[in-house]
Write a structure and sequence with these properties.
Elements (H helix, E strand, L loop, with lengths): L2 H11 L2 H10 L10 H5 L2 H4 L3 H9 L3 H10 L7 H10 L3 H13 L4 H9 L4 H17 L7 H14 L5 H17 L4 H11 L16 H10 L13
Length: 235
């Protein structure tokens, strides 16, 4: 399918109900309001066309941008393109999911996560923390920088409640990821989670709730799933 055909198909798949849901979450025009499940059905038409995926993201249309993230091969994307994607990720779904997940599976995961986490731009910082969290979920523990992760846990412990709105959300998510995926640091993550308690995030006109990290990690422990890695973090 061509770019024009994909965009036409996205428009056909969109609905006013889904548009309103995305609007409540913070999306901006242009977008059609396509459900994630329907986007996944189009991946096969984009997956082997790197340039098409890049063009879809550059369209600025949310649905097309998300489809690009589902379709692109993370090993073929350049660091410069990922940096450009992060700059264009104007709301949390693009930052926390599309950019972060693709970057986490790229060759530049840690390099860009470290760079972005320090950014004064809220959504770029969100990209950074979410990239690192996703990286933890797919990377064997023996390849992780345990000392660095401990330092980041301490940073969350000391600063999360004073951080910017959506950064608070992904910092909390980082603690969850450490507790869930890094066996050696599960206990330390639990201690940090207990210390920070409930993290308050303005989720707009939605019913979304911020997970309480300590409770979430306990549930994973009860299921005996601590340290179980994912094959892919792109979803």
């Amino acid at each position: 399918m061509t770019y024009e055909e994909i965009m036409q198909k996205l428009e056909e798949l969109g609905s006013e109900q889904t548009k309103q849901i995305y609007l409540n979450h913070g999306v901006k025009e242009p977008y059609f309001g396509v459900k994630i499940g329907d986007l996944k059905k189009l991946v096969k038409y984009v997956k082997k066309n790197h340039e098409l995926a890049l063009k879809l993201y550059d369209s600025g249309n949310h649905d097309a941008m998300y489809l690009a993230g589902l379709s692109i091969n993370p090993k073929h994307i350049s660091k410069e393109t990922l940096q450009d994607w992060a700059k264009k990720a104007y709301w949390y779904m693009a930052a926390e999911y599309t950019v972060a997940q693709v970057t986490a599976e790229s060759d530049y995961a840690l390099e860009l996560a470290r760079e972005w986490m320090k950014s004064e731009d809220e959504m770029v910082a969100v990209c950074g923390w979410s990239t690192y969290s996703n990286y933890l979920s797919i990377t064997p523990d023996e390849k992780l920088d345990i000392a660095e992760i401990k330092t980041l846990l301490n940073q969350v412990k000391n600063t999360v409640h004073e951080e910017r709105n959506r950064v608070r959300y992904v910092m909390n998510g980082f603690v969850l990821s450490v507790g869930a995926y890094v066996t050696e640091l599960c206990e330390e993550a639990k201690q940090v989670a207990e210390f920070i308690g409930k993290v308050h995030v303005d989720v707009g006109n939605t019913a979304c709730k911020v997970p309480i990290a300590s409770e979430y990690i306990k549930k994973i422990e009860m299921k005996n799933r601590v340290g179980m890695k994912r094959k892919t973090c792109i979803c």
